[in-house]
Predict the 3D structure of the following.
Amino acid sequence: MTDGRQWGGGRAPYDRPMSETAGAEGGVREVKSAARTVELLEALAARGDRPARLQELADELGVPRSSMYALLQTLVSRGWVRTDVTGSLYGIGLHALLTGTGYLDSDPRVRAVRPYLDEASEALGETIHLGRLDGHDVAYLATRESHEYLRTISRVGRRLPAHAGALGKALLAERPDAELPAGPYEALTPNTHTDRDSLAADLARIRERGHAVDREESVPGIVGFGFALRCEVPALDAVSCSVPVARLTPDHEARIVAVMREIRAKAEATIPAGNGAVHWR
């Protein structure tokens, strides 16, 4: 997506140039070294299982090679970045995982919703997710995998473009269409909405229906059903159920929708607005 507007809170997209992040909220100037460190960690995280070389990272972030080397060595010594035995390849480090786990453990909403994810998983035997809108993406915060379908289609910490999945579309439908970027949007499968008009028409159907449906738009062979948790306006979190196309009958779809609607209602009742928790932005 090319538009600069963001649908949710959190960090900017990985490809946002450092020059665009200069300046800060409340008139406080951004600390350049801190921004560079965060951008490096995000770049390494985005690579997944593909380690990076020093020059690749220097080129990607527009940083002098010597400065990048010093930054990498500092982060390696503190466990945020790891390197191979030759010292020439770099990847995200263990401390990034520990910090991410701390985020999940400290989030009262994640803790409150987890029992209902278990309940939905037991009732349906399918994969259940909790996700949060973050920029143009949805970040997966919790997952209960199906025992019958062992292929992992998502994991905690994974990001998926909001326009392409049931979680994201359920959350986009809570927002006015005027906030949608002009497109074109990334196509994950032949069924993904890649233009604004097509996505807006689908969001209108979601508002009328009350939940989102992703029919092989994000993963081939998988259908998803997404339900926004309306604990604030607009909603930031959603739950979903994913099921293989081969196992989806009309009766099973009706049961999934009924169970997930009940799960949503229980979760929303557990997390009332103004419950005294910290309101993170």
